[in-house]
Amino acid sequence: MSFERIAVVGAGAWGVALANVAARAGRRVTLVARNEAAAAAIAKSRESPNLAGIPVDPRIDVAAALEPEATALLLAVPAQALREVAAKLRVASATPVIACAKGIEQQTLRFMTDVIAETMPGATPAILSGPSFAGDVGKGLPTAVTLAAADPTLAQDLARAIGIPTFRVYHSSDVRGVEIGGAAKNVLAIAAGIVAGKKLGASAAAALVTRGFAELARFGEAFGGRPTTLMGLSGLGDLILTCTSSQSRNYSLGIALGEGISVQRAGTGKLAEGVFTASALVELASRKGIEMPISAAVAAVLAGKLTIDAAIEALLMRPFRAEG
């Protein structure tokens, strides 16, 4: 299928960037804003306040429709808001609905495609994830991501529908592996930021990312993710990006925490998905007996149960063991 008409729900930075990509791919695109006032403002200015300097492609229609006419839909809203937004939408049966958020629902411990399945029973859930910043995508800088759907042919068709030379979309049928990589890396990016904020050095940063990936891989495989997926763009690739760049909201939040700023102050401003995902990730790991000391330390720090210094000391004092 060619999926000629695409709706992007969410007119924030990521939504605008994805809508522009789909328009450049030759699709008829509707950008769905949260309400009529927001839609009118973006339609008039042709720019989202969340992605300043990047114009909305003139071929894109801007609306606030709850029943967008589309053959595929991209949900570009935060993970914790996805259920509420999805429940209000109406799409034709079997319409692919692609989650573009990287997280786990905090209250229910549900992954994004599970939330779509529960709130939009007639839809076909899919997930888009990978090392990508909205600003880079909006500027047309080279980016590669992964789109996964249970049906590999559908995943391939969707990838072709929105892929362009500067936004290379790989396809996969490993839905769980792709969404786990995107969710877990946000928590680990906070830890990497703390290391940078505490000025613990490049060696510590490398060790943190490496051992963090071991946690991500253990978790992913326990929940059915394929090792090749976890080693790919949506796993290792996204982890590298978010653990090394100040463009990452989670990494930036971790830096602030490492510099001594309180969780409350550090968490104001831009949304960092890892703040909400951390407790959910650790709870799911605990249920399966998966050891995730770095993620658990981040969750404890965010919850105010552990100071950063105590968390670092506890990690350093762990028993020596074989690598794995």
User: Which descriptor suits the 3D outline?
Assistant: globular
Largest sheet: 8 strands, mixed
- Distance N to C terminus: 43 Å
Question: Helix count, per DSSP?
Answer: 15
Q: Can you give the mean pLDDT? A: 94
**What's the CATH class of the largest domain, please?**
Alpha Beta
The low-confidence runs, each spanning 5 or more residues with pLDDT under 50, are none
Oligomer kind: single chain
Main sheet: which strands, in order across? 3-2-1-4-5-6-7-8
CATH architecture of the largest domain: 3-Layer(aba) Sandwich
How would you portray this structure in words?
The protein has 324 residues and is of the alpha/beta class. It has two domains: 5-173, Rossmann fold, CATH 3.40.50.720; 177-316, N-(1-d-carboxylethyl)-l-norvaline Dehydrogenase, domain 2. The protein contains 15 helices and eight strands. It has helices at 13-24, 36-45, 82-88, 112-119, 134-138, 152-162, 175-197, 202-222, 227-230, 233-242, 249-258, 263-266, 274-287, 293-302, 308-316; strands at 5-9, 28-32, 61-63, 72-75, 96-99, 124-129, 143-149, 167-172. Strands 3-2-1-4-5-6-7-8 form an eight-stranded mixed sheet, sandwiched between helices. Strand 1 (5-9), helix 1 (13-24) and strand 2 form a beta-alpha-beta unit. Helix 8 (202-222) packs antiparallel against helix 10 (233-242). The chain starts with a strand and ends in an 8-residue tail after the last helix. The mean pLDDT is 94.
